[in-house]
Design goal:
Blueprint (H helix, E strand, L loop, with lengths): L1 H19 L2 H4 L3 E8 L5 E2 L2 H11 L10 E13 L2 E11 L6 E13 L2 E11 L7
Parallel strand pairs: 1-6
Antiparallel strand pairs: 1-2, 3-4, 4-5, 5-6
Length: 132
Amino acid sequence: MADEEAIRQIELGFNEAWGRHDAHGMVESMADDAHFVTVNGAWTKTRAEYLELMTRLHGASGPFRSSTRETPAMEIRSLVPDVAIMHSRFHIYGDIDEPERTGIGTRVVCRIDGQWRTVAVQNTDVRPGRRH
C-alpha cells in the first residue's frame, strides 16, 4: 500500500505543479531518460526535452498558461516488485484552445535507488461520440 500511495503522489504532485505552471515540478518524478507522448503526439525522449516542452506550453503565451489539471481516477497495477503501471482519467480546465478536456493517461513507473520514478507516459484525449 505504501508503494501504491507513493505512485499516486507522483500524479497528484504533477497536477499541483501544473496548477502552479511549474515545469520543474512537473518533471520532478521523471527519470533522466523518461519518454513522454502528449495527447497531440509530441514525443519527448528525455526529462530535459519534456521540461522544455512544459516550459513553453505553460509560459506567458502558452496554451496552458492559466489552466488547472485534476485526476479523479487512478488504477495502479504492479507488474514486478519494482515496476508498476498506472492508468488515470484526468481533466484539464482553462486550456486556451479548449475550455475543458478529458484524457486517459498511462504512466509506467520504476523504483530507482529506492524512489518511484516515471519512465514512460502516454496520454490520449477522450473525444465524445467516438466509438474506437
